[in-house]
TrEMBL record:
It catalyses: ATP + H2O = ADP + phosphate + H(+). It comes from the Eukaryota. It comes from Raphanus sativus (Radish). The gene is LOC108818815. This is RNA helicase. Residues 262-434 form the Helicase C-terminal domain. Signal peptide: none annotated.
Length: 698
């Protein structure tokens, strides 16, 4: 039975549509207060604050859902850590976690988002000068350090979800160690010089010592504690009910299908309680969402009370909070999620977990310089976190869609991302922070020498670093300032010279979203015909461009007749008619606006090449020359940089025409190595536009 507190968590995100049955504002507030009091962390508020006051670095470990992320910042605020305009910053590995948690905390504080509580993530900043509790991605906080190296606006920085060990978290852990030292040094020097005067940081702000809190859901705090010279670790007791873990007898050949079967089995046979399903990405989640809806139609009328909901990184803002709302009475919710629901966010009401046993993860081969996003088995730690989600509110069940013997074979924990990703992005940032000795930098886990060398080389080829590894001015600085992978920042800078900046902005925005088209099973043929209408024989980048432009023209024409609110509806309709994913397009349009803002701030004039697609393709070649591939006699392709044999992904518009030479953006390993997002180029352009890398005979 859900307790009072859980009931509250649900009702607090009810929409503000008038509903005669909805509780009054007063009782809503009362319920929020009760919910907050009922969280395990509430009973240790005083102790936590004392420890923060006593220790400059504190490690806090606690079961997911105990209230660390939503409550601790509020405790700090109440204890006076935000006096004199100071902020508490909370970094999250995932943007969607930063966004949903900030919204929740604003609600708990009864303030509009963006005032006292706000979030800042790449391409979306809701904070204002009155923001005191600032949720952000770890990547965003790193970027702030570029502008304000002492992070002087923060009295406390909380690095949340540190167990995730994303590459940005790892860099942040090291950088904050340095910032903390620099700030203490600055304060000490200053007080010895002036007998207690204050030091001015960025924009003349007062500098005081920095408090650092590292939060993690995994029980192993040792690694963080040791890294910070034996820092104190505190454990927050959570509530965990027993979870019955079930395995399949045989390995499943199709985990998506197995997940569907399991969802319906639970729905038909198990007692009340919502279901949480772990899948790997937006495409898969949306396809399962449609399949659930389709199969529901075949059930008897009284068994159709199952409500699929989704949560993944690219979900538009206004749809994110829906998973937290309770299902209408009589309905069972089935939440289709990526690994974001493992520890980053807690969804109330879950009693059943379906674990496909896989996750999409980055892998990198520094020898070949090839990074790819692959679907791989989870670690044991991830599997345990996933099953734990079923036991938050009462005893639960977890269905692992693999045999028990497979579990034993899983890695204990996930390898830190810094050991399996392309480092060019972080190295460029460290360089622009003035940290030149990357090999000697105090990482918690050092990246391999090979990966560092490869990244330095890539940055040099992209024009961001000089031959002796120093930041190239102004190009390297400009690239570091843009919040995206160096190849894309480079592409924007080049596009400015090729007079196709408008087109490249659209390209970068479209490449930032996961699935542009959608392909409902029941309308495959229709979808294909519709897609053909956009498909360019020259390449996918041009195809995406025409989708974006056509939607723009369509909206432009209707601008006069319609209010802002209606635009959204018109857009959804256009997308549906054209088999385009409206969630993705919306995300891409927002991203476009944000990146455009950045380049305009940098003084770029956004010009368009109109229909001169030759110039645009040449610009793509000049930008993505490190990812060029040439057709071989047998119809496969050879990636020129790595020498690897790759195949054009069937989803690409160039799958059939197989041009002689292409540039591509994505490499993906499934049954074969596939390249995606490609455009045909003239091989001679490579020597002409990237002469420092290609010679004509190649
Ligand atoms: O960080 P930690 O995992 O310890 O917990 P939290 O994220 O602070 O969540 C505490 C509680 O707030 C959980 O019970 C969530 O269900 C609830 N919550 C919510 O109802 N809606 C949100 N958007 C976020 C959290
Ligand atoms: Mg948390």
């Amino acid at each position: 039975m859900p307790s009072m507190a859980q009931g509250e968590a649900k009702s607090s995100v009810l929409s503000n549509k008038p509903n005669p049955k909805s509780p009054s504002r007063f009782s809503m507030r009362q319920k929020i207060t009760e919910h907050r009091k009922s969280l395990p962390i509430a009973s240790v508020e005083k102790r936590l604050i004392e420890e923060v006051q006593k220790n400059d670095i504190l490690i806090i470990v606690g079961e997911t859902g105990s209230g660390k992320t939503t409550q601790l910042p509020q405790f700090l605020f109440n204890a006076g850590f935000c006096r004199e305009g100071k902020m508490v910053g909370i970094s999250q590995p995932r943007r969607i976690a930063a966004m949903t948690v900030a919204k929740r905390v604003a609600e708990e504080c009864d303030v509009p988002l963006g005032q006292k509580v706000g979030y800042s993530v790449r391409f979306d900043d809701t904070t204002s000068s009155s923001t005191r509790l600032k949720y952000m991605t770890d990547g965003f906080l790193l970027r702030e350090a570029l502008v304000d190296p002492l992070l002087s606006r923060y009295s406390v920085i909380i690095v949340d979800e540190a167990h995730e060990r994303t590459v940005h978290t790892d860099v942040l852990l090291a950088l904050l160690k340095k910032v903390q030292r620099d700030r203490s040094k600055a304060v000490n020097e200053r007080s010895s010089e002036t007998g207690g005067g204050v030091l001015r940081g960025c924009q003349g702000r007062k500098v005081s010592p920095l408090k650092l809190i590292i939060m993690s859901a995994s029980l192993d705090a040792r690694v963080f504690s040791e890294y910070y010279g034996g820092a104190k670790a505190l454990h927050v007791q959570g509530r965990q009910f027993p979870v019955n873990v079930l395995y399949t007898v045989h390995p499943e050949t199709d985990y998506v299908d197995a997940a569907l079967v399991t969802i319906f089995q639970i729905h038909m046979e198990e007692k009340e309680g919502d279901i949480l399903v772990f899948l790997t990405g937006q495409d898969e989640i949306e396809s399962v969402e449609r399949l659930v809806q389709e199969r529901l139609q075949h059930l008897p009328e009284d068994k159709r009370m199952l409500l699929p909901m989704t949560i993944f990184a690219g979900l538009p803002s206004e749809q994110q909070m829906r998973v937290f709302a309770p299902a209408p009475i009589g309905f069972r919710k089935v939440v289709l999620a990526t690994n974001i629901a493992e520890t980053s966010i807690t969804i109330p009401g879950i009693r059943y977990v379906v674990d496909t046993g896989v996750v999409k993860a980055r892998t990198y081969d520094p020898n070949k310089g090839m990074e790819s996003l692959d679907v791989v088995p989870t670690s044991k730690a991830q599997a345990l976190q996933r099953s734990g989600r079923a036991g938050r509110e009462g005893p639960g069940k977890c269905f692992r869609l693999y045999p028990e013997r497979e579990f034993e074979k899983l890695e204990d924990s996930t390898k830190p991302e810094i050991k399996r990703c392309n480092l060019s992005n972080v190295i460029l940032q460290l360089k622009s922070l003035g940290i030149d000795d990357i090999g000697g930098f105090d990482f918690i886990d050092k990246p391999s020498r090979g990966a560092i060398v490869k990244a330095l080389e890539e940055l040099r080829l992209l024009g961001a670093l000089t031959d002796d590894g120093k930041l190239e001015k102004p190009v390297g600085e400009q690239m570091a300032r843009l919040p995206m992978d160096p190849v894309y920042s480079r592409a924007l800078i080049l596009a400015n010279q090729f007079n196709c900046l408008e087109e490249m902005l659209i390209t970068v925005a479209m490449l930032n979203v996961e699935s542009i088209f959608y392909d409902p099973r029941e309308k495959r043929e229709e979808a294909r015909t519709s897609r053909n209408h956009f498909t360019s024989v020259e390449g996918d980048h041009l195809t995406y461009l025409s989708v974006y432009r056509e939607l723009n023209e369509f909206l432009e024409k209707r601008k006069e007749e319609n209010s802002e609110a209606k635009v959204d509806k018109i857009m959804r309709k256009w997308c549906k008619d054209n088999f385009v994913n409206s969630r993705s397009l919306k995300h891409a349009r927002d991203t476009y606006r944000q990146i455009r803002g950045y380049v305009e701030q940098m003084g770029f004039n956004v010009s368009s090449c109109g229909n001169d697609m030759l110039e645009y393709r040449r610009c793509l070649a000049a930008s993505f020359f490190l990812k060029a591939a040439q057709r071989q006699m047998d119809g496969t392709y050879r990636a020129l940089e790595s020498g690897e044999i790759v195949h054009i992904h069937p989803i690409s518009g160039l799958f059939r025409s197989k041009p002689e030479c292409v540039v591509f953006n994505e490499l993906m390993q499934t049954t074969k190595k596939y390249i995606k997002n490609l455009t045909r180029i003239d091989p001679l352009w490579l020597a002409e536009l990237a002469p420092h890398h290609y010679k004509t005979e190649e």
